[in-house]
Design brief:
- The protein has ten helices and seven strands.
- The protein is α/β, with parallel strands linked by helices and 253 residues long.
- The chain has one domain: Rossmann fold, CATH 3.40.50.
- The longest helix is centred in the C-terminal third of the chain and has 22 residues.
- The radius of gyration is 18 Å and the shape is globular.
Length: 253
């Protein structure tokens, strides 16, 4: 047994328990998204910066996941094109507007966007929420205020306005990420290891999917949920959903 791995698991489980307490906010967000699905409006998701993109990739074409997500996966902040490059771009004021334009965000009334960002302070994150509000898009934020409250005004990681995502969105879901992201101390080494942010973000996104499906069923609507393409009948089941949403969701086909 490894005491460090045990510690990592226990701390993650505690974070998940805390996220479970966010159920009222998750259900509120789920109802808003269900409204959009019912009205045939686009539901966007964006992770503006580095590993926060993974929270959005988690729900794109996912077994047991909803087919409706217009996942905004801009190459500028995707780590595959350079980790430091991603960091530079997420700190660039004004960059988000062009990304939102490219993905057609705000073309119709009644659209919703989920903004997933672990810290919720960088330029792209704040520009995204402010621009979406200007476009009349309902904003849902998945982030942790713990870190945001520790970063002083004027810090290089911050948007010039010094605003915080959790204070700007219409609906805020706390992912309970602790400051610094890492969880595990190892004897004889100063820095902690074992990051938590991807677990936090992906857990929230899957909780949100669960509550959206419940809400749709309560309204008598069949939830548009993918099967695993690797299971018997998966390709056949998914084909109709891919045809329905392929023209709306940029990265589906």
């Amino acid at each position: 047994m490894s005491k460090e791995i045990t510690s990592y698991r226990e701390q993650l489980c505690e974070i998940f328990r805390l996220i479970e307490q966010e159920t009222p906010s998750i259900q509120k967000a789920a109802a808003v998204i269900a409204d959009a699905i019912q009205a045939d409006r686009t539901v966007h998701a964006i992770g503006p910066g580095g590993h926060s993109n993974l929270g959005v990739e988690e729900v794109l074409w996912r077994a047991g996941g909803l087919a409706v997500w217009n996942a905004i996966l801009d190459p500028g902040t995707n780590l595959i094109h350079g980790a430091k490059r991603s960091n530079f771009i997420e700190r660039t004021p004004g960059y988000a507007k062009g990304v939102l334009d490219a993905y057609g965000v705000g073309r119709q009334p009644g659209e919703v966007i989920v903004i997933v960002n672990a810290y919720g302070i960088n330029a792209m994150t704040i520009d995204t929420v402010l621009e979406c509000k200007r476009r009349g898009v309902t904003t849902i934020g998945v982030t942790s205020p713990t870190f945001a409250k520790l970063v002083p005004p004027g810090h290089i990681a911050r948007h010039p306005s010094n605003k915080n995502l959790y204070e700007e969105v219409d609906i805020f879901i706390d992912n309970h990420l602790p400051a610094g992201d890492t969880l595990v101390s190892i004897d004889g080494f100063e820095e902690k290891v074992g990051s938590a942010s991807t677990f936090c973000n992906c857990f929230v996104m899957n909780c949100l999917v669960i509550e959206i499906v419940k809400e749709l069923l309560a309204r008598g609507i069949t939830p548009p949920v993918f099967m695993s393409a690797n299971m018997p009948g998966g390709d056949e089941h998914n084909k109709a959903l891919e045809e329905k949403y392929g023209g709306v969701i940029k990265h589906l086909l």
